[in-house]
TrEMBL record:
Protein name: TM2 domain-containing protein 3
Gene: Tm2d3
Pfam family, one: TM2
Cellular location(s): Membrane
Annotated TM spans: 190-210, 222-244
InterPro entries per the UniProt record, alphabetical: TM2, TM2D1-3-like
Sequence similarity: Belongs to the TM2 family.
Biological source species: Burhinus bistriatus
GO CC term (a single one): membrane
Coiled-coil residue spans: none
Domain spans labelled TM2: 189-236
Keyword terms of this UniProt record: Glycoprotein, Membrane, Signal, Transmembrane, Transmembrane helix
Topological category with respect to the lipid bilayer: Multi-pass membrane protein
Length: 253
């Protein structure tokens, strides 16, 4: 009887131990499941933080408010018809008759303010001009570069390649900057009247040639006493008609 009672007690003990072990295993799985479930939102939130940090900001960058460079050339609150061409955009009519007056529809560029004849601000207006290309304008309507390396006194007269720019208040068709072949017309500051006076009074001593920068001819006249007067008379005539000029090739003032 005692042995039977011991076996029953041993079975109960084994049953309790088995129950406790199963409970421990189940509690461990539940904890792992709970940990996994809680970790997923955190990882998702972390990913969202990471993704938003690498993306562009939600707010757009402020648009550029820089004023264009052409605005400095455009007088404010002036007549629209007197604006420089850089301040407006016009519908060019290339079918106009050359040399005849033509009307063009124009519009001011952004940041440009102008008025009509009644002092009312306007954007659309018309301008009147002669139908011709810029390179066909009168010489007073454009400014060209000058050359100091070509000879003005030569036969035939020398030309040089110049770059010309139309003045701001002049309107024309085509490019406002264009190349043009011009005659050499620069001056070094020599006066024709001074050269002629020296040739008449002190030409026998070569003063006229020295003044024009022609040192060799001046020394020749000095030591030959003006070629015994013949060279002096010839130089008076050559300087008088402008055939003999400055040694640097420039024009008289």
């Amino acid at each position: 009887m005692a042995a039977l009672a011991g076996l029953r007690a041993l079975r109960r003990f084994c049953g309790v131990a088995l129950f406790l072990s199963q409970l421990y295993v189940l509690s461990g799985r539940a904890g792992s499941l709970m940990t996994t479930k809680h970790s997923q939102p955190q990882s998702t939130f972390a990913k969202s933080l990471t993704s938003t940090s690498t993306n562009t900001p939600y707010f757009k960058a402020a648009e550029s408010t820089e004023i264009p460079s052409y605005v400095t050339k455009c007088p404010s609150n002036g007549l629209c018809s007197r604006l420089p061409p850089d301040c407006m955009t016009c519908n060019t009519n290339y079918s106009c008759i050359y040399g005849k007056p033509a009307t063009f529809d124009c519009k001011v560029k952004p940041h440009v303010h102008c008025l009509d004849q009644n002092n009312h601000e306007q954007e659309n207006f018309t301008i009147n001009m002669t139908c011709q290309f810029c390179w066909q304008l009168a010489t007073t309507d454009y400014v060209c570069t000058n050359s100091t390396s070509c000879m003005t006194v030569s036969c035939p007269r020398q030309r040089y390649n110049a770059t010309c720019t139309v003045r701001d208040h002049i309107h024309c068709l085509g490019n406002r900057v264009f190349p043009k072949m011009l005659y050499c017309n620069w001056t070094g500051g020599y006066k024709w009247s001074t050269a002629l006076a020296l040739s008449i009074t002190l030409g026998g001593f070569g003063a006229d040639r020295f003044y024009l920068g022609q040192w060799r001819e001046g020394l020749g006249k000095l030591f030959s006493f003006g070629g015994l007067g013949i060279w002096t008379l010839i130089d008076v005539l050559l300087i008088g008609v402008g055939y003999v000029g400055p040694a640097d090739g420039s024009l008289y003032i």
